[in-house]
Write a structure and sequence with these properties.
35% of the residues are buried. By secondary structure, this protein is mainly β.
Length: 127
């Protein structure tokens, strides 16, 4: 049973930074592609960022230049550093894990690629 636990979400003012953390229970964490998705009120879940086992990263256009995804395999942890936050970044942020194997760029951004999901952490950005 793979468990993902997110933390770090809170209320923050626009323009400031926040780092989200996701810890995975699986010993095989290093074999997982890890991603962050978000779901804003009244909207569907959308891709934010992902990092493959080979460290290749992928970002949504809305995240490029402001967000950074990184992983620590020795700690079974993935981070999402979010800078220059905007009110439109307000959402529940979800960590996801995939055993996708070899890198395939098109798969990184797809919700259906991911096998395991956390419960989410809430980020609210005030203007």
């Amino acid at each position: 049973q793979v468990q993902l636990v997110e933390s770090g979400g809170r209320l923050v003012q626009a323009g400031l930074s926040l780092r989200l953390t996701c810890t995975c229970s699986a010993r095989v964490f290093s074999t997982f592609t890890m991603a962050w998705f978000r779901e804003a009120p009244g909207k569907g879940r959308e891709f934010v960022a992902a990092v493959h086992t080979n460290e290749t990263t992928s970002y949504a256009d809305s995240a490029k230049g402001r967000f950074t995804i990184s992983r620590e395999n020795f700690n079974n942890t993935v981070f999402l550093q979010m800078n220059s936050l905007k009110p439109e970044d307000t959402a529940d942020y979800y960590c996801a894990a995939s055993s996708m194997g070899r890198f395939r760029a098109a798969f990184m951004t797809q919700e259906t690629t991911y096998d395991y999901w956390g419960q989410g952490t809430q980020v609210t950005v005030s203007s």
